[in-house]
Amino acid sequence: MSGVTMDRTPVAGSGAPQPSYSLRQPRLPRWTPAALAAAAVAAGTGIGLGAGLSSHMQWGLIAALLYVAAMYVLATRVEGRRQAKDRLATSLVWVCFVLAVVPLVSLVWETISRGVKVLDVDFLTHSMGGVLTIRPGGGVYHAIIGTLEQVGIATAIAAPLGLLTAIYLVEYGRGRLAKAVTFFVDVMTGIPSIVAGLFILSFWIIMLDNGYSGFAGSMALAILMVPVVVRSTEEMLKLVPNELREASLALGVPKWRTILKVVLPTAIGGIATGVMLAVARIAGETAPIVLLVFGSQVINNNPFDGAQSSLPYYIYEQWAAGNEASYDRAWAAALVLIAFVMILNLVARGIARWKAPQSSR
Amino acid sequence: MDITSATASPPPAPGAGPSPARQQGRAATRAGDRVFLALSRGSGILLLVIMAAIAVFLTVRAANALSQDHGNFFTAFEWNANANPPVFGIAVLAFGTIVSSLIAMAIAVPVAIGIALFITHYAPRKLATPLSYVIDLLAAVPSIVYGLWGALFLVPHLGGLYSWFNDYLGWTGILAYHDGAARSLFTIGILLAIMILPIVTSVSREVFRQAPRMHEEAALALGATRWEVIRLSVLPFGRSGVISASMLGLGRALGETMAVATVLSPSFTISTSLLDPGGGTFAQNIASSFKESGELGKDALIASGLVLFVLTLLVNGAARMIIARRKEYSA
């Protein structure tokens, strides 16, 4: 510990026989980082205003640089080199944290403040039929219908498929087939949504010569959803204690009834959470919808025939229209979509927390 | 699980899986079992079939497109599938995809490591739990909303920063910026960085959390500072995990469609400056030019999609292999 220094040389005039050594290193007071951060923000603002920099991002970047540099210099002078490095790492980590929070706050703030402008009951209950894009008015009803139907069908396909696959992997899976399935489920997780859309396009629309429809979009969404469901269900089934299975089998219950009546009920909370998180993920997918559902201005309740719209597609369409009225609608639809996804997320996490003690121990 | 094979009275038949002989022996009680096994194994096989079908269908359509391409598919700087003769090439798209993803990685990975360390080692506990929730929620925001935010909020705010870069670093050529909306590859990189931040963070966070407690305490007992503890015991332990996390993030960034399609102003040129608008990515090009495409145009887009598919397969496969190898070590 070369950093430990004699705190003060003994005061010459006191006449004390023994010099008083302190083993404590000189430290900066606890409030230094906070004070320095405030000073850096002030300096960044000052420089930004003084130099007439237009972008607030520059102000922030200058403030962050000043803070990190000042902290390092100060710590080197007072506390020594090792402590200064520690301080440097700490301040960098804090800067990273701020960097991550700023975009999120800005995104949520922009969406809410711009979204509430046109969001009202009319917006939720009307379609865009007969509304010029450059005029205010119109709504998202047709898009909400489309999203609910497409996501519903996708879930109806993907949830049983994913559940059964996970059961196979955990309860039966051994050997080469199970290994291959595990590997390809991992690979499927990384398939870009646009590639899933292209696959359904080449298979369902080009080869089988079907028209654009909500169902085509649902199939692509299901491909994106299955691996997520498999992964989360697998994790949950693995948490079910083996003693439960053994007890049931020892009583002579056939394996399939053991799985249905013992294993699945134990893990059902976690499985539901996984499915809902997967639903939340696909509800915001736009790319397959662009390729397969084609978009529509009017209400189409039949997902199996004809073009539909969906919330994410609606946002894209209104953004592409490129005028103030349509931007307002895009933000409002974004707010609806985020609210939908966030509620699904929170409910899913709520279920996970509520069910957790029973399934994990 | 194990108990079933233990209860089987005849010697286990060679080969994996439940032996058919055993099931026939108790056909009366095992009928349900056989149906159930068939169902669950069938869905596993169905997944494999889907994966194979994706590869096969994309390849067939792509082969059809390539046979009619009058330019070089890999080097042509053009995308005119409707022209006569049709010419299209992926050079610009490949460049844009890779460059924007690399920029995203360069920004996101250090920040994500920082946040992961913040959550596991620095933050007061009261802040750490809500923060990891917030990061997870960041992952749930749909990409089109990021795109909208990027196009209507981020782009207008980046112009000032870019002219600043241009003033001081414009001589490099790479960071030169001429006026115009900042709808460039670099902006895409920033946006993608924000989008892949959550996944890189959450995987690294899990890895850092698993770092052996004993090592950390030993280092602390020797008088190490917090940074030295992290450098000596946490980072070496987490290195492979962080690498695979960044590859997963890279896979996401490569395939991101809507955020890029809304923000980028595309062009079929490669410019030396990353800040000037122009360029394109595979996914963006598919989404933006789909509606104007005829029969051959769609096939050409599918061909470019196949390239993207292979690219993400390679990246994700590599990430998974690193994770799997790490599991063997730490098990």
UniProtKB/TrEMBL annotation, chain A:
| Single Gene Ontology MF annotation | phosphate transmembrane transporter activity
Q: Where in the cell is it found?
A: Cell membrane
Ranges for the region named Disordered are 1-24
Q: Which residues cross the membrane?
A: 34-53, 59-76, 88-109, 151-170, 182-206, 212-230, 262-283, 330-352
| Organism of origin | Streptomyces morookaense (Streptoverticillium morookaense)
Which InterPro entries does the record associate with it?
MetI-like, MetI-like_sf, Phosphate_PstA, Phosphate_transprt_permease
Q: Does the keyword Transport apply?
A: yes
Give one Pfam family, short name only. BPD_transp_1
Gene Ontology terms describing biological process? phosphate ion transmembrane transport
Q: Which domain of life is it from?
A: Bacteria
Quick one: where is this thing mainly located?
Answer: membrane
Supply the alphabetized keyword list.
Cell membrane, Membrane, Phosphate transport, Transmembrane, Transmembrane helix, Transport
How is the protein disposed in the membrane? Multi-pass membrane protein
User: Per the database record, which ranges form the ABC transmembrane type-1 domain?
Assistant: 144-348
Protein name, UniProt field: Phosphate transport system permease protein PstA
Q: Which family does it belong to?
A: Belongs to the binding-protein-dependent transport system permease family. CysTW subfamily.
The Gene Ontology CC terms held by the record are:
plasma membrane
Please give the function described in this protein's UniProt entry: Part of the binding-protein-dependent transport system for phosphate; probably responsible for the translocation of the substrate across the membrane.
- Gene coding for it: pstA
TrEMBL record, chain B:
Q: Where in the cell is it found?
A: Cell membrane
- Pfam families the UniProt entry points to: BPD_transp_1 (PF00528)
GO CC annotations on file:
plasma membrane
Q: Which GO BP terms sit in this record?
A: phosphate ion transport
Q: What stretches pass through the bilayer?
A: 44-66, 86-119, 131-155, 185-208, 300-319
Q: What is its membrane topology? A: Multi-pass membrane protein
Q: Which UniProt keywords apply?
A: Cell membrane, Membrane, Phosphate transport, Transmembrane, Transmembrane helix, Transport
GO terms (molecular function) for this protein are: phosphate transmembrane transporter activity
Record's superkingdom? Bacteria
> What InterPro entries does the record tag this protein with?
MetI-like, MetI-like_sf, Phosphate_PstC, Phosphate_Transport_Permease
List, alphabetically, the PROSITE patterns matched.
Answer: ABC_TM1
Q: Which residues form the ABC transmembrane type-1 domain?
A: 94-319
Where mainly located? membrane
According to the record, the residues making up region (Disordered) are 1-25
Q: Which family does it belong to?
A: Belongs to the binding-protein-dependent transport system permease family. CysTW subfamily.
**Role this protein plays:** Part of the binding-protein-dependent transport system for phosphate; probably responsible for the translocation of the substrate across the membrane.
Q: What is this protein called?
A: Phosphate transport system permease protein
Which organism does this record belong to? Streptomyces morookaense
The gene coding this protein: pstC
